[in-house]
Every structure is written in C-alpha cells, then in structure tokens.
Amino acid sequence: MLPGFSVEQELQLDYRINEHIVLIPAGRNHQARLETTVFQPNGPGPFPLIIINHGKDPGHPNMQPRDRFYHMAHAFVARGYAVMVPMRQGFANSTGRYRDRGCDMTANGYIQAEDVMDALSYAREQKWIDADRIVIAGQSYGGLATMALGTRELPGVRGLINFAGGLRDDSNNCGWRSSLVSAFAEYGAQNKVPSLWMYGQNDSLFGPELVARMHDAFEQAGGKAQLVEYAPFKRDSHGMLASRDGEKVWLADTMRFLEQVGMPTRIVYKVPEPPMPQPTNFAKVDDVESVPFLSRNGKRAYAEYLTKMTPRAFAVSPSGAWCWAEEGEDPEARALATCSAKSDKPCRLYSVDEHVVWNPDLAEKAAVTASNTPAPMPSADPAGAAQVGGTAAVAN
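Now predict its structure.
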C-alpha cells in the first residue's frame, strides 16, 4: 500500500532476464486467469522457483498496475531461480472478481491464498520448474496471503518470506490491528512451513509494537518465524521491497534463511544491468535556470524534484511538458512515458539521480524525427501522475 497515482503506460518487458507474461488458470473451475509476470534464466531448467505475492494499492484493484518486483527478481534470476509474480483475481489484468471479508483479516488472508495456491499448482506442473525447490514470498497484503498459505500442505515449498505483511482497513470502525493479531495466531497454530519476517522500524502501516504482537501471537500458537526488524528505510520502510536500494536491506537475511531451508544462494548467472544514461557537462544538477523549455511552474517543479530521493528522473519536452518520477521500478522509463503521453513533442531525460544527462544534439534530432510523424491526440487532462511502487508528478 503506497501513495496512489494512475499509471499512464505499462513498463516494457525486460529481455535481459527473459521477462514474459503468462495467464494462470485460477478460481472456481479454473475459469479465472491470473496475469503473471515470469522471469527466468536462459536454458531449459529445471529452475528453483520463488513466487512473490503483491500488496494492495489504494483504490479499485483492477486499476492497480502489474507488479513485477523487478529488483528482487533480478537478484533471484542471477542465482538461477525462476520468478513468478501472479496478480490475484480482480487485480490489474487478471480476470475474476476481487473478494474480501472486510475486517475479518483471517478470512482475507485465506481468500487471497487460494489464488497463490493455484499459481503454485500451475508452477509445479511446468517442466522448467524444480518442483522440490520452491520458496514463497509476499509483501504487505501478499505477506498476509503467504502466511495464510503456510497453513496448508505445500509439497516442494521449503520456506515462506513475509515482507511487511498485513492489511489495513480504516473503514466502518474496523479494529484491524487486533484482527491481524488474531489472524496470525490462527496461521501460527496451523503453520507447516518455516518463515522469515522482515519489518522496518518506520513502516507507516505496521509499526514495531503491532509487529511484536503479530509475531508473538504467531509463535505462541506454534508457528515457526524468524523476525528481522531493520532500521528506518528512507521515508517509509513499507515500500522497501520496491526500491532499488532495498536489496541492501533484505538480501543478506534472505540468503541466510534460504541456506537454512536448503535453497540455493550462490550467483550462477551474469545478468546484465539495464543501460543507464551517461552524465553530460550541460549544467550542474541543481542549476534550475539551465533546464530547457520549462515555465515558471516547471522550474518550481524541478526545484521540488531536487528534494526527492534517488532513484529519480526528470524528463522534459519542447512543448513545455515535464515529469519527474521517484523510487520504484525504472523511474527513467516512467518519467519519459508519462511525459510523452501528455505532450505532442518528444520528451527526453534531463536528469537522473544526481546527474544531468541532457544532450542538446540528441534532443534536436528527436524533435526533427517527431516533426515528420503524426502527432498523438492531445490528452483531455493535461495534468496527472505516474507510479509503480514510487511517486511521480507531471504537467504540460
């Protein structure tokens, strides 16, 4: 659960880690289809598998973008794993209906776990999956679903990883905190798979006191769970897993846990890093007046952008459109895509992280190319925002 903004364009599939999408049968009579992102190493396998379960953004679930957990997937593919990220029923482009039981957190976890079980069953039938070496992880609502799944017999599943697991519901005077504690107590009483829990001290949803109550309830009921409470992470540790910098937090403890449950941890593949724009000598990054095309409001926006945390990116267009993106997956692509969707002239990156990457010559060539192609229909709404596990702002 992160600040909610509309997503203008889908991120491109990453061929470097063989990213593709499959539709997994799920639900009653397998009539639903789960939009599932898959990453895997080159070759036929069979590969050990990690299934990563997503949380719930504010707003209607079918408006939520496809989750990828790209940074975590990258690390696991390098270690020889296949990675599956299934969008549960009613989320993103998955069919079926989103189901919930209001303030009954125990039931909510069980309902979401049904789709995860369908994804697991599908994965075990694939020849390129090692059905005896599987780990299941989840973030936020996906963490709750993962722990609910751990009450079932799970052939081949050696461990569960709960990243900031839970669900918040402030509607109708819901006592969601006590309901979460009760849920984890029930899951602990029926727990069949060892688990690792990771929560940050500055988690905006599940603070240390609540985490202690949930973990104590789980273990006192008989569950097996190692709790790691890590130091504050940026503004809000609840989004740690989606951050490029989150690997510094989760990797070491996760690898130790995987070793304990007999899963591989050694890097076996060289996975190329995505290409990054090169810094130029056009201007200093904090020189607001040097940013081309911006109106007074645009310059104020760029000054605000300079206060944002890395990873970040700022894109501009000769039309005066601009967009910045912060955190999450591929802020460069998000900034460009959203800026371009709001402009009838091409957008290019001006700044990435702490550097100016603007190249006037390339920008001029792009403008000439664009002048020879049909212009897109102008947007009815000239202002918007974009987010995939991060925040952004845009205008023209």
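Confidence is low (pLDDT under 50) at residues 1-9, 366-390.
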